[in-house]
Amino acid sequence: SVDEGYLDDIAPGGEVQVEVTVSVPQYTDITSDKLTFTVEGEKTSVIINVITSVAGPNILEGLYRFFESLGEDMGLDEALGSSANAAIFLASIVFIIIFLFIIILVYFLTIKYVNVVCLEGIKEISPDEEAKFEITINNPYKYKLSYEVSAVKDPSNKGWKVSLDTESIALESKQSKTVTLTVKPTDFVKPDDWVEVGVVAKVVEKQKTAKLSTVTSIKGAKPELRISGMIHWPTSFKKGDKV
Asked: Domain 115-218 is of which CATH architecture?
């Protein structure tokens, strides 16, 4: 709207403050508009142009308007008394569905189908001995499942021979079975040699796996340890400094 006003009796050098209010409709596609402010005197006039920008709705406002429009299209605004009630009703239903979906997703992502346990996973033996590991396979699921069990090691390590006494088992719910892993040195083993052997249990019906690692070393062996990705501060230091 445009209003005209008159200002009388302004002394030379005097000032008068004029407030201009611009009202923006609740729903509009206009992003900006120009306001022309004209001051006319007896001998001169001044024209001032002001650009008013309309800030777009944020994410929450956009969602509210979407649900409000959807509620009006479905006739919920009449049934619930207002478009605001319809928007809140639809938003609540959507959020409840999303919440239930997240709960179901978390359940399926965290459910376990197999547990692999070994109470003694590190053994030291003589070159003429063999290490035996008792590996327990447990079915924590509520139904019967079948498992394929395998032993894996670095194929480049020729100094060791590994074997399992069982490679396939079926377990009822909450049932467990012990599998024996045997690790035996060969003629290629070195005096300070060691080997890491993993036991993998694969759930046939679910295509899920669980793995446990064991370590066998020759008595007196020194396993090769590597440290990577280490950082320190300060980056440079001298004797006696704390890092």
From this structure: Sandwich (2.60)
